Amino acid sequence: MENYVSVWPVLVLAFIHCFGTKLRFLAGVPRSIWLSGAGGVSVAYVFLHLFPELGEGQKYVEKFNWAEKSLGHHVYLMALVGLSVFYGLERAVVTVKREQMHKTREKEPETPAGIFWLHIGSFAIYNALIGYILFQREEGPTQALLLFSIAMALYFLINDFSLTEYHQQHYTKFGRWVLVLALVAGWATGFIVELPKTVIVLVMAFVGGGVILNVLKEELPEERESRYWAFVLGAFLYAILLLSL
């Protein structure tokens, strides 16, 4: 850990949260080809790099006696948990905003404080996990850290525009700073706490499931007029890069 290589990815990801939404050309409808392409890159990374790592990490999970039968060959169960958690959050936010629209007749009603903090708090925990993974990846090849950082940087950009759309000025004034602090706190925790390999594998699985859900929920709604070709191109090009290394 002498070189603290991961400090640079952490700073880049924090910078994206601070200033990413100022890239106004990425906002609006139809969906920016750059955001669709970024989504393709993030999903390609999860399927072609992160999930194969989880397969290799299954041996750590199986060291738990209680997990040998219930979780044998199913480390991906945690990925399903991650996907399900963020799907639930998405449904909660959408449902509440729809109810607010009916009550206030406003096109873009303000998100209730409770839902806002639940949403931001969940993403803060998620960011902390990603920060810890960045620190942990210093132990491996620099290439693995770089590939993970690129995928997460593009994924953070997608999330920033999504959260800004949901929460508007509440996100730009408060939410993004909470996410920055959570990211740095998660990374800094690596200096104090060394989690078992089993826990790290499960954390990565949870993150992978969250990435898939959060990317696809931004691409699928018809009203966004997403650029399918840009998504596929981003996924294809990053897949070529991953498979060539």
From TrEMBL:
The chain crosses the membrane at residues 6-26, 33-51, 71-94, 115-135, 141-162, 174-193, 199-216, 228-244. It comes from the Bacteria. Keywords: Membrane, Transmembrane, Transmembrane helix. Coiled coil: none annotated. The keyword Transferase does not apply. This is ZIP Zinc transporter. It comes from Pontibacter populi.
